[in-house]
Amino acid sequence: MDKNLPIVALDIQHQEAVREFLSAFEGEKLNLKVGMELFYSEGAPLIKELKASGHDIFLDLKLHDIPTTVERAMEVLTLLEVDMLTIHASGGVEMMKAAIRGLEAGTKKTGKKPLLVAVTQLTSTTISQLRDEQKIAVTMKESVTHYAELAMQAGIEGVVCSPQEVSTLKESSNNQLITVTPGIRLNKENRHDQKRIATPFEAGEVGSDFIVVGRPITESKTPVAIYNEIRSQWEAGRAAYKERN
Ligand SMILES: O=C(O)c1cc(=O)[nH]c(=O)n1[C@@H]1O[C@H](COP(=O)(O)O)[C@@H](O)[C@H]1O
């Protein structure tokens, strides 16, 4: 995946609408995220089509199940030769190690190893949900750091978190951990269901490795212009981070 480009979340249900959305980008190579709604609807053939058009693919299915099920599922997902895959860190170390075994078994067959990242706390989660619903009596940063440590213990190279936790994770992992950050908004007034948000510039400035953006682009009347605005803010933020580090 090209770190200079935002990852566009194709949270669209049907392939016709995906094709129409992508036609506005006129053959430009994109980082595309296919999540549950699109994959459950269109499956592997669409992944193949998007790859054949030259795009890099983040297949985000956030696996969370017993270790054997995750291992076997991860093996077959790896056969799709995508660039990035997700699991939930809350599934635990044993489950994450099983995911890695599945990924390695798939990689042996394809020769292409996707980056596996573990979701820490979803960007839609607030501190009160953490405390009252999940009954986790620590701060958001502590909970995210804890899940990131479990992921590293299992041998996972990257995590999904909000830009608000990136500095903490970079510090605690001695800059080893790759961070993928959704919850990106150009306009913070329109956050939808996202709670821990940042602008593309802010995400770049704190050292996020990848940003994921969906509705601000896919629901826009001018998706290409919004994508380009996000991309240039992201580049400026990354440049500011590089200058400081
Ligand atoms: O794993 C993800 O990609 C993910 C993790 C997370 O904590 N928060 C989060 O929003 N996402 C995904 O990132 C995308 C964000 O979409 P927008 O809120 O529309 O920009 C969605 O496809 C979510 O599934």
From TrEMBL:
Assembly and oligomerization: Homodimer.
Gene3D superfamilies: Aldolase class I (3.20.20.70)
Catalyzed chemical reaction(s): orotidine 5'-phosphate + H(+) = UMP + CO2
Gene: pyrF
Keywords noted in UniProt: Decarboxylase, Lyase, Pyrimidine biosynthesis
Name of a matching Pfam family: OMPdecase
Protein's recorded name: Orotidine 5'-phosphate decarboxylase
Source species of the chain: Fundicoccus culcitae
EC number: 4.1.1.23
